């Protein structure tokens, strides 16, 4: 089976390399990714039906196996963002072979930072809640009762605070990461250590293992991570293609993307080549304050946050945490689609329609296709992941302190622990500053 996987991967890679090397601009309507709260009940029902068909066809085992096999190359490395952009797009196009109008939703996790478990995604009619206390298996949601062939196990979740999830990064934290990261390497690592790692670690179970794609929340989460990268790219056009690691060491942007045999630079542009999608302009659908809800209808929620920060913080504090607000640079409301041509693209165009055979998954499976993987999914046990659990100190504070990642999770991901400590201290400092100034987030 390993040989079979390897053969298909190589074959698919050869197909890709002949059609995406020049990253032509997409033509026709782009797939528009929406925040999960924006989906209608009929859209959720349609997704559920297709997921069952894809499970029967073996797609979820397939995509999990791809992630597991290449895990060490994809995290704590410069490939983190470009690889997951391509991988998420692969899954999106596979689903489009069943539902042509499908666009991968995103989960704006920061919008529910104070009480993540209250998110709509954990409702029984969406993706279900916490796992069973003993087995950790989810018992509600779209994938309730599933057994993954590749691991011969259920889909597991283990919230980091019983049936609750402790606080993670709020929109202001994410905004600060976007504004203070002036190189690709800085932004990629800050994002990976921040809201990316927090969501994986806090939901627990499969999400805190290398088999995290078992849980479809993985793809909602990475769709949002990709959205945040696109925001940063459009705010920092001069640094967009400066491909470095977090230490500033240059990497080869024209090198091959792991598994795909396509230039890494081809994953840097949304609206070109394989990436025929965009995002809606709304930031979230889960605001709780009445005034913000009213403003959000007009698309002004992020500008309210900017104005609040300017009113509460002096220029020195703004320069440290929100430097672009000092220069009056538009932050969150920057367009998600750049109108300028990519330096790696030509004047050719490509259809935004899925052809069904351009992704690493290969051809669309027939109804008889089965993927009975013999791959052993080597995951961190829940006991290892759970060690040194910490809680964000949101009790009594207007602005919550994000929860620290566990040592077990940091080691599993191969993160630079001193670098993480530095990053986390900045998150704590920001929360303490906002609380000392009496700041009240419009998102809480």
UniProtKB/TrEMBL annotation:
Residues 1-20 form the signal peptide. It comes from the Eukaryota. Keywords: Copper, Metal-binding, Signal. InterPro entries: Di-copper_centre_dom_sf, Tyrosinase/Hemocyanin, Tyrosinase_Cu-bd. SUPFAM superfamilies: Di-copper centre-containing domain. The keyword Membrane does not apply. The keyword Signal applies. Residues 337-357 have a biased composition (Low complexity). GO terms for molecular function: metal ion binding; oxidoreductase activity. Residues 75-92 form the Tyrosinase copper-binding domain. Residues 337-364 are annotated as: Disordered. Gene3D superfamilies: Di-copper center containing domain from catechol oxidase. This is Tyrosinase copper-binding domain-containing protein. It comes from Smittium simulii. The lineage of its organism: Eukaryota, Fungi, Fungi incertae sedis, Zoopagomycota, Kickxellomycotina.
């Amino acid at each position: 089976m390993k040989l079979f996987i390897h053969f298909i991967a190589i074959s698919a890679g050869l197909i890709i390399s002949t059609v995406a090397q020049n990253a032509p601009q997409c033509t026709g309507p782009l797939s528009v990714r929406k925040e999960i709260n924006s989906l209608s009940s009929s859209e959720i029902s349609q997704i559920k039906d297709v997921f069952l068909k894809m499970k029967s066809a073996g797609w979820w085992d397939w995509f999990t196996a791809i992630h597991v096999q290449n895990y060490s190359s994809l995290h704590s490395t410069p490939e983190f963002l470009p690889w997951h952009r391509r991988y998420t797009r692969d899954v999106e196009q596979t689903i489009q072979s069943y539902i042509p109008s499908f666009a991968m939703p995103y989960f704006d996790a920061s919008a529910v930072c104070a009480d993540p478990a209250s998110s709509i995604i954990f409702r029984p009619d969406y993706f279900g809640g916490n796992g069973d206390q003993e087995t950790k298996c989810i018992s509600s949601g779209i994938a309730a009762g599933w057994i993954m062939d590749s691991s011969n196990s259920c889909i597991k979740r283990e919230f980091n605070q019983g049936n609750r999830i402790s606080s993670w990064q709020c929109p202001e934290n994410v905004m600060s990461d976007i504004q203070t990261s002036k190189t690709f390497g800085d932004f990629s690592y800050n994002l990976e250590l921040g809201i990316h790692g927090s969501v994986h670690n806090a939901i627990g179970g499969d999400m805190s293992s290398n088999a995290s794609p078992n849980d479809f929340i993985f793809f909602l989460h990475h769709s949002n991570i990709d959205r945040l990268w696109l925001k940063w790219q459009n705010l920092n056009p001069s640094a967009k293609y400066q491909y470095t690691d977090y230490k500033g060491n240059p990497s080869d942007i024209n090198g091959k993307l792991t598994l795909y045999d396509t230039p890494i630079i081809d994953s840097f542009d949304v609206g070109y080549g394989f990436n025929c999608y965009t995002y809606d302009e709304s930031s979230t659908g889960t605001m709780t304050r009445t005034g913000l809800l009213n403003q959000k209808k007009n698309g002004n929620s992020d500008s309210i946050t900017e104005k609040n920060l300017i009113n509460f913080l002096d220029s020195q504090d703004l320069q440290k945490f929100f430097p672009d607000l000092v220069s009056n640079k538009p932050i969150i409301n920057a367009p998600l689609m750049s109108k300028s041509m990519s330096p790696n693209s030509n004047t050719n165009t490509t259809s935004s329609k899925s052809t069904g055979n351009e992704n690493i998954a290969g051809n669309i499976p027939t109804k008889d296709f089965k993927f009975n993987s013999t791959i052993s999914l080597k995951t961190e046990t829940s006991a290892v992941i759970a060690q040194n659990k910490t809680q964000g100190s949101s009790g009594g504070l207007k602005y919550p302190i994000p929860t620290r990642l566990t040592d077990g999770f940091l080691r599993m991901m191969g993160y630079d622990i001193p670098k993480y400590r530095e990053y986390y201290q900045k998150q704590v400092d920001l929360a303490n500053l906002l609380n000392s100034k009496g700041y009240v987030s419009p998102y809480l």
